[in-house]
């Protein structure tokens, strides 16, 4: 098969040729946008799921929906131990710039930009590294007395309320998209929840759409008890058989290529319906297939190469980030999750390693911070990457 015409796209956050199995989420967000446009209160949205299920892709698709409705939009990716003050300032600046041409009151825009500048400039002092300072292209003086207290919760509430006021003036809205939301520092999470609460109470046209790992709802709940009612939580999971087949067949048919049914059976068995794996196996199988239709044998021949690529780029790169102590913890998890590749009790890991649970806490906490595992529930732990346990058992050397 011509590799130049290969339609599959196994990239991090890269939109596949066919966004299969996500129609319900797209339709729900359309309803959210329409309700807010009509002045009705609506909750912000939080997408959760494992690595490789397409959260970032879906987040970008939702942003495209907002842009089509002429909303102002901005996107950030949260990072551990970094305040969202600076990246959020940049995202809001972009969102308001998209609305400015339709705004009839330049003075109102100028006033808001002054508030935004004041908020941003509170992100650090003289000791802040140059690369971490925000240099806004805002030719207005920073405002005084609004969003500039240095208390992130007070400042963020005031800033988002003012931003929503700009959007309301033009009969539109603002949507802020936050990827890796579980990495937002605790104080900023609390501030974001408080701001979303205020926006919802006033039915203001600004919505936050976050995406993160499965424990993100617990992160939000630990910050504000009312967060359980503040956000609409949507779990993004692997594709069912019909959607996984469609993700492979639809783009192939546009290139005049078909699959035998048994080939699709083999691909679903190999990928388990995880969108990233579907794209990875689809791409390698296409490159290996000599003729049309693609057969089960083509899949079997291509599978080792697809698995090898995942071992290096998807699994291996994550494993290499772990320290020896963390790798020992991961290996124990893999051994104990042999049957289900699922949740493991932390007490069982300690027993397996012949260690006290407290002595393993640093390794566990560091792995959580690195996004390799998450606390599924109290006293248990799970991999954030599907099939990671299988990879560790089959490929990763025991330390």
From TrEMBL:
Statement: the UniProt record of this protein carries the keyword ATP-binding: yes
Superkingdom of source: Bacteria
Region (Disordered): 1-23
SUPFAM superfamilies referenced in this protein's UniProt entry, alphabetically: P-loop containing nucleoside triphosphate hydrolases
Domain Cytochrome c residue range list: 168-334
Molecular function terms from GO: ATP binding; electron transfer activity; heme binding; metal ion binding
Keywords linked to the UniProt accession: ATP-binding, Heme, Iron, Metal-binding, Nucleotide-binding
Protein name in the entry: ATP-binding protein
Organism whose genome encodes this protein: Phytoactinopolyspora alkaliphila
Phylogenetic lineage: Bacteria, Bacillati, Actinomycetota, Actinomycetes, Jiangellales
């Amino acid at each position: 098969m011509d590799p130049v015409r290969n339609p599959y796209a196994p990239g991090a956050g890269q939109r596949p040729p066919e966004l299969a199995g996500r129609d319900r989420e797209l339709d729900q967000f359309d309803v959210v946008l329409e309700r807010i446009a009509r002045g009705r209160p609506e909750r912000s949205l939080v997408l959760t799921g494992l690595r490789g299920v397409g959260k970032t892709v879906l987040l970008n698709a939702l942003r495209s929906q907002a842009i089509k409705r002429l909303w102002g939009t901005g996107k950030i990716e949260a990072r551990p131990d970094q305040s969202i003050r600076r990246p959020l300032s940049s995202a809001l600046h972009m969102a308001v710039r998209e609305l400015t041409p339709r705004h009839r009151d330049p003075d109102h825009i100028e006033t808001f930009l002054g508030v935004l500048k004041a908020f941003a400039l509170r992100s650090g002092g003289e000791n802040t590294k140059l690369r971490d300072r925000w240099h806004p292209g805002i030719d207005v003086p920073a405002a005084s007395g609004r969003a500039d207290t240095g208390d992130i919760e007070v400042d963020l509430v005031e800033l988002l309320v003012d931003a929503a006021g700009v959007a309301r003036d033009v009969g539109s809205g603002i949507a802020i998209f936050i990827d890796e939301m579980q990495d937002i520092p605790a104080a900023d999470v609390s501030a974001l929840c408080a701001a979303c609460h205020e926006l919802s109470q006033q039915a203001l046209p600004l919505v936050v759409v976050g995406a993160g790992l499965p424990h993100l709802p617990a992160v939000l709940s630990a910050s504000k008890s009312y967060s359980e009612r503040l956000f609409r939580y949507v779990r993004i999971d692997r594709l069912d058989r019909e959607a996984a087949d469609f993700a492979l067949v639809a783009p192939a048919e546009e290139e005049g290529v078909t699959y035998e049914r048994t080939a699709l059976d083999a691909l679903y068995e190999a990928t388990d319906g995880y969108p990233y794996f579907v794209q990875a196996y689809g791409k390698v199988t296409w490159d290996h297939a000599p003729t049309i239709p693609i057969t089960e044998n083509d899949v079997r021949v291509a599978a080792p190469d697809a698995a090898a690529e995942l071992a290096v780029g998807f699994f291996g790169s994550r494993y290499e980030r772990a320290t020896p102590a963390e790798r020992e913890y991961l290996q124990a998890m893999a051994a104990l999750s042999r049957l289900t590749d699922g949740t493991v009790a932390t007490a069982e890991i300690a027993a397996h390693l012949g260690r006290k649970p407290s002595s393993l806490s640093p390794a566990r906490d560091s792995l959580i911070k690195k996004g390799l595992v998450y606390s599924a529930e109290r006293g248990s732990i799970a991999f954030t990457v599907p099939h990671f346990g299988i990879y560790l058992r089959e490929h990763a050397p025991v330390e």
